[in-house]
Amino acid sequence: MNSSVIVFPGSNCDRDIAVALEKMQFKNQMVWHKETKLPKSDLIVVPGGFSYGDYLRSGAIAGKSLIINEVIKAANEGCLVLGICNGFQILTETGLLKGALLRNKNLKFINKDINIKVINNDTKFSNKYKKDQILKINIAHNEGNYITNPNHLKELINENLIAFKYCDKDGKINESCNPNGSVENIAGIFNSKKNILGMMPHPERMVDNLISNTDGVNLFSSLLK
Amino acid sequence: MKITKQIVEKHGLKIEEYANIKKLLKREPNLLELGIFSAMWNEHCSYKSSRKHLKNLPTTGKQVIQGPGENAGVIDIGGDDAIIFKIESHNHPSYIEPYQGAATGVGGILRDVFTMGARPIALLNSIHFGSPDHSKTKSLLNGVVSGIGGYGNCIGIPTVAGETKFNSTYNENILVNAMAVGHAKKDKIFYSKAKGLNKSVVYVGSKTGRDGIHGASMASAEFDENSEEKKPTVQVGDPFTEKLLMEACLELMKDNSIISIQDMGAAGLTSSSVEMASKGELGIELYLDKVPCREENMTPYEMMLSESQERMLIILEDGKEEHAKNIFKKWDLDFVVIGKTTNTNKLTLKYNNKIEGEIPIDSLASKAPMYDRKWIKKKLPKSKIDFKSLKKVKIKDALIKILSSANHSNKSWITSQYDQMVMCDTVQKSGADAALIRIHGQEKIIAVSVDSSANYCKAHPITGGKQIVCENWRNLVSVGAKPMAITNCLNFGNPEDPKIMGEFAECLIGIKESCEFLNYPVVSGNVSFYNGTNKKNISPTPVIGGIGLIQNLKKPMNHQFKKGNNNILVIGKTFGHLEQSVFFEEIYSILDGQPPEINLINEKNNGESVLEIIKNDLAESVHDVSSGGLLIALAEMSIGSNFGVKINKPKKLTNLFKYFFGEDQSRYILEINRENMKKVEEILKNNNIFYENIGLTQKDYFEVEKEMKINIKELYKINNQWYNNY
Fold first, then answer.
1. How many domains does chain A have?
2. Which one is catalytic: A85, A93, A167, A177?
3. Which of A189, A198, B506, B677 could bridge B461 with an S-S bond, Cβ 3.0-4.6 Å?
4. What residues of chain A lie within 8 A of the CB of B110, using their CB?
């Protein structure tokens, strides 16, 4: 399977996702933001980091970069697109995913391992997980507080487009285990065709038992199927 | 402009120093030249008060590739790999403007490391604040922590370890020390020494603005009530540009285009150009009209003294300009040839072809002032504490009070604001005795820790200096790493006061003694004097940052109990030293007497035996016993795990407070599975190590026989409330 990782100035999880993809046997290429053509890809990853220093608004400038037009084109043609953390923020800026990510409710950067629950396991990104499976996964962001309009929220719920929700270690979903204030404890969403996933937690950080756990592995192996 | 006495003083120079400048130049300097002298001759850049003493530190060893004198120290960790690291202070700017001060402290130390060809792999920090009830402390804490996080998170280097302390001695002068650790290939290390004539001197990075002018001079004077007015001398950081600069430099470093490279840190363009020329015994000519400027009508004086961040000076091989320029263009950074090397041994500054200033390089470097300042020895203090007269407390209450205090509370409020995992090589995060970082793509692991003990250093600087090196060494040993080398950040008061100079000289004597005995050389560092306001100096606070190495990691070692019914061994003798202890400080507000003594022979033997036990996979968890003593260390091992302890009443020391809270040195606590006891005892007996078997681990409860019992969930709560309530 061919993957492309888009590299913006200020991306800083680009190497991490590349290492994870290669470990999972993807044939990966890095694509510089000034490129105007994408290599043949089955999966495009928009990685985490601080593209353009988060200036103006996180993801805003990257959302207008040269390569992003190609990402939009490919996504509309059905290519799989994964946006992680800043990548999720960028995808909302392009309109590929609806909604927006606001400052965390405590107004601080948060880095910690939290729990998320797999809400929809019937997608190309999540078929190797069990439904309602609880994952322990790392978050690291300033703006992860997902918000959207009531109609879109209804659509997310009715069409089963919520990928992951923040939960406690027993799987209970409530305000106390919501790290950033996201509506409905949303940690990740799909577009209506379910070929695009945006998520704040970092699955690429969870593929190695020595540094964390392997709860992220099944996201990548789902894609390989 | 005529240089008057007022102008000289405003530049932080003494009248005698000005006379010396005239002698060296054989004429009066103009204002630009005076500014340059002030930038190079201030304490921060010239180390004029400290050089004499720093010379005595051990800086060599088989593991050392580069000792002090370069941008950072370099050690050999086997194979092709080198670790490049350094710690630096950013105290004065952080007190005036905590966010930017701390952020640019991180930015500056990162540049020191990647300038030498290393990709930074870890950040650490040591931050000291005033008393929590001082009116400024809360906002300073908030600002500094967000500043450190803001910079490190954005550039994408994990912040993996550190220490945070509160003490009224820092009420008017906080400490912010940042340490960066990088990894390079041994044959790809870059130095600042210029070589060759007529080579292009290239300016890369951000544009020059008016920020930070005289920053280094500010850091070389005490504060007074008008310190707030110094805000404009604080630099403003841009981690995004630094990320680009780092990637561009590392890309250019892949081939042989660079002859030498130096970051523009304190005293910016001045110190970087002088340093390169001085080390290469060359001259350097700069065309200041070519310097990329952020603001209009900047004068040569402002350009030479600006401390705008994220800039570098590079000397390139002939014919490499186009190649280098393309790399910097790719990263959208300025790249301008602003000068060349010469054989004049002078710093020549031209603006529109007119010479604006010309100074012999040696007068700025080797001939800069060096002082042998007066210093006085500190006598070993005698304690006046009469233990019997003190109000009685219960052991449990003392334990709870210490664990819920500002200095001993869990610091996750701070560390969760730092990205600790980016780069995906963090094997162990902060909270352990030392953090563990994997060398990317390899099995090798380095351990890092940063430590200080200002109370001990204040009470008796020689003992304190000795102790802090040992404590740092112990932290690395506790995670199973072989300690390799250190960097130090020496934070002291006004060196013109013989008492303060004595604290400095004697702390260094102590540091030297431990470093020599433990083969633990100092490879880089930084001195920060004049930490004080209105003649009130801070307690002497040398901060030690250590690097250890694990060649083959079996499993990461940490301090959390793993299982019930395991034996708990204490390595090293407990004498019950309570003077200068946390117990006296927190329970009775007494800081008196002498710090605990260090026996270096025991230190080394105990540490090496612990390493042997860990290496043979015989320990389940290991923790060093440090401030707070045995009971606090045991509580730290329980908190966050599912297991507590059942400790037997000690047989020898009758005073339980001395036994449980005494801060005797060179001690470790080991959790040992019963099956391994025989092998462990054999190692300890073979090495003639004193140890005690003090009890067992148990599920859920923290218990001292017939004295106290508490649920560990309760302990966790007690230990985790301070920051959230502050």
1. 1
2. A85
3. B506
4. none
